[in-house]
Amino acid sequence: MADDAARAAPPVAPEQPAAAPPSDREQRILGIIETARSKRARFKDERITMAHGAGGKATQTMIEGLFVPAFESEALAAMGDAGAVAVDGTRLAVTTDSFVVKPIRFPGGSIGELAVNGTVNDLAMAGARPLALTLALVLEEGLASDDLRAEVEAIARAAKAADVEIVAGDTKVVERGHADSMYVCTTGVGAVDPRATLSPSALRPGDRVLVSGTIGEHGTAIMLARGEFELEAPIESDTRSLWPAADTLLDAVGPSLRCLRDATRGGVASVLNELARASRVAMVVREEAVPVTPAVAGASEILGIDPMYVANEGKLVAFVAPEAADEALAALRSAPGCEDAAEIGEVRTEPPGMVLVATAFGGKRVMDQLVGDPLPRIC
Amino acid sequence: MRYVDEYRDAELGRALAGEILATVEPGRHYKVMEVCGGHTHSIYKYGVDDLLPANVELVHGPGCPVCVIPMGRVDDGIAIAHQPGVIFTCFGDMLRVPGSKGTLLEAKAEGADVRMVYSPLDALRIAKQNPDRDVVFFAIGFETTAPSTALTLKRARADGVENFFCMCNHVTIVPPLRALLDSPDLRLDGFIGPGHVATVVGARPFEFIPADYGKPLVVAGFEPLDLLQAIHMILGQLSDGRREIENQYSRVVPYDGNLRALEVLAEVFELRPHFEWRGLGFISQSALRLSDAYADFDAEIRYEVPGVRVADPKACQCGEVLKGVIKPWECKVFGTACTPEHAIGTCMVSPEGACAAYYNYGRFAREREVV
Lengths: 379, 371
Prior knowledge:
heterodimer; A: 379 residues; alpha+beta; CATH 3.30.1330.10; seven-stranded mixed beta sheet; 10 helices; 23% strand; disordered C terminus; B: 371 residues; alpha/beta; Rossmann fold; five-stranded parallel beta sheet
C-alpha cells in the first residue's frame, strides 16, 4: 500500500516495526479462504428472504449462481445496468426494472416518476440515449382512482422531461392484499452513443472516481416518509433523469470515461464494490470528499446507517482516466442537478476487489459489500 | 454536526496519537481490550487503530450483545415466532444471527410474522394495535438496553396490556469479564470500559478489576477522540505503575450510575442462576429473567419452547481469541467449519468480531502493518 501516501491524509507515522512474515499455517488458512471466495457463486439458499432483494451479497449470489448460468446470455453476463443488442449494425441498449416502493408518494417524488427516471438512468449509464419505454402496472384491488391518475400523470410528466415515449403497456389487477397499492414494471430501449466505450471491467489503477452530487437523499427520504422513526427532516428524493449528465460527460471526455453507474439500491458503496470486483482493482475513497447534506448526515447519524449504502435515484458514479478527471468534473458540475459533483477517490492496484475508505479522522477501513439490508425495501 | 464533530477532529486525533506514541515503552507489546461492541464499531468506523503504534493491540471483547446469544436461544425464539397468531419483534441486527436451523430472517420467509423494531415501546404499540394477537419482544442487550425493556414492561402492566410478552435475553457485563480475568492464560494489559453500560451501572462495579486483578480500566465514550484519550490514560497508568478505575466519559457517566434505572431493573428482573454465552459457555449469574412479579409477561412461561442446548462445536476457540491467547487463524475451525456464512462462535457472527474481520480483511490487515 505504498502508493497510499500520495493522496490520502498522511498516516501518523509512528515507527512501525515491520511485521513478521506470516507463518506457514496462517498462509495456508488465507489460501483456503481465498480459494473459497474465488469460487463461482452458488445459489444454495432454501428460500428467498428480503436479503435477496437488498442488492448485497445475497442478491449477487442469486444473480451469478442462478440467473446468469441459466440464461447463458453474454449481454447478461456482462452485468451492466442495461444489455446490448445489435440490430442491423445499430447498437441498442435494453433494460428492465420493477418498482415496489412504499409509500408510493414521498417527499420529492412518487413511484411513477421513479419508474421513468430509474429506467432512463439504466440506459444512460450504458451510454445510451433513452428512446422508448414500456409500462406494466400491477394494481391492487381497492386502489383509489385518484392515486392511479396521479401516478399516470407523474409518469407522463417524467417521460416528457426525459424525452422518452411510452410505446406499449399492460395492466393487471390483483386481489386486495396481493400487492402494495401498485407495482410498476418497465422496459427501456435506448441507442448506444458512439462516443461511449463503457464497461464495468474497464477500470485501471489511477482512474478517478466522481459522484454527481450529494448522496443518500432518496433512501433517507423514503425511510423518514414511512413514519417509523418519529423523525422529521427536510430531505427530498433526488429522483431525476441522468441522461443530461451522462451526455455532458460523454461530450467532454468520451473516450476517457471508463464506466458510469447510478448509485441506486445499496448506494455508492455497492457500486464501488461491484466494479472493484469486475475490474479486479482496489479503490480508495476519501471520506471527507464525499458530498453529503447536513440533514442526511444528521439523520444517518441518528439511525445508525452510513449514507454510502443508502439509495439514490438521481446520482451517478463516474470512473474517469486520471488525465481527464478535472475536465470531467467541471463538465459534470455544469449538468442540471450536478452542481455539487465531487471527486471522491481513486482506483488502485492492491488489494484487488476491495474498497477502502480513508476516514476523515485519519484512519482506514474496508467498505464492504452489504450482506443484506435490515431496513425495509426502499426502491 | 455541532457537538459531534468536535469529538472527531483529525488534528486533535493526531496530537493524541503523538502523546500515545510518547507514552509506550519501546519493545513492550500492549494488549488492551475494548469490552463493548459499540467501541469496536467506532474503532472500525474511524480507523482508530491506524493511529496507534503497532505494539498497541486492541482486542475485541465479549460486549456485542447480539453475538453472544447462543444458538439454542435463537432456536427457541424461532419456535415462538412460528406459533400461530404470534407477532415476533426484535431489533434488526438480531434477524441475521444464526441458530442451529437458520435465522429469524429465514423464519420470516417461511411464514412467521417477524418484525423489526427500534425500541421495545414499538413492540408494545404493535401489541396494542393487535389485541387479538400475541406480540413477543425478543429482548437482548446488556444493562444499557435492559432499562428500556423494564420500563416497557411497567408500561404494559400500567396500561393493562395482556397480549404482550417478553423473551428475556438480557445479560450483565461483570460476570463475563470476571470469567475472562479468572483464566490463567489471560494476556491483556488493560480495559477500555463500556461507556453505555456505565451510564446505567456506573464505574463502581468495575472496581474489582484493578483491585483483584491489577489491571487498569478506563470508562470511555464512543467518539474516536474518546477512545484515543482512554487508550492514552490506560497506557499512562501502566507506565506510572498505577492500577485504577478512571472515567474518561464523565460527561455522561456518573460514578455511581443511574440510580433510577437500577431501581427499575431490580423491580422487573432477577438474575438467572446461569446463562450460556456463545463461544464462552455457561457463566453463572450472568443474565436476567423477568421477576415473579412480571411472570405474566414472560414468553418463556407463556410458550413451550424446545429449550434444547445446542452445543458450540468443541473445536470453537472463541474464548481463547477473546482472551488474546490465540489469533483467529490459530483456531481449529477458523475458515473451514466456521465462516461468516456459517458462523459457529461469537467472534465470527458479527462483521466486527475479531474472526469475521480477519476472515474478510486478513490479507489487507497484514499489508497495513508494513505501511
